[in-house]
Fold this sequence. Notes:
By secondary structure, the chain is of the alpha+beta class. The protein has helices spanning 30-35, 63-66, 105-108, 110-119, 167-176, 192-197, and strands spanning 4-5, 37-38, 41-42, 53-56, 67-72, 77-79, 82-84, 87-91, 94-102, 123-124, 130-134, 138-144, 149-155. An 8-stranded antiparallel sheet has the order 4-5-8-9-13-12-11-10. The chain has a 3-stranded mixed sheet with strand order 1-6-7, with no helix packed on it. It has a two-stranded antiparallel ribbon with strand order 2-3. The chain is globular, with a radius of gyration of 16 Å. The chain starts with a strand and ends with a helix.
Amino acid sequence: MIRFAVTLLLSLVSTAAWPQATSGPMTGMHQLDSLYAVHGLMFGTAEGSAPSLQPQFSGIGKRWRTSHVYSLRTDTATLGPLPVRPEFWFRGGRFIGVTYQLPKESKTRAIRQQLVRRYGPPRTGNVMNSLYWLGERTYILYEDAVPNVTLHIASLDMLNEQVLETTVRQEARSFLGWQPDSLGLSRQFPLPSEKRKK
């Protein structure tokens, strides 16, 4: 059985001991920035050019005319030693990142521990129970929600798909000059904290 290993987690040199800045790009993310790929697929790869992927139903409406989600054809992938089922996101015909639903993670925290060892301590986001790592070209977002933990490993282009103004997107704006692309942001919703104030 073939498994597609996550290249970015297989380096022999851990970055967790590297000092991390308190804002802006994090030193520990240099490895992912340099690879600029996940599951062996380079960010920016043209949609339809990866034979290992098959289209997955994405949704209806304006957003899904430009954004499409794919899954692996035959097998799970691995994130470190753990099997996962990544969803591959394409926007405007280009690969922008992957998301994972991790049903066992809320009990084991095994993936979070691996990420901390590899990329150093994360920052706390402005959405409850969210953590993130920000690089110069990439980011990782860990959302601890019920019933599953959701993980994003992506290029900065994936920030266009976020439906909230998350801290990682705010920092990308402030420190990296990130701006929404010509396709525009997905429909935006207020942060949970903003809802409570009303």
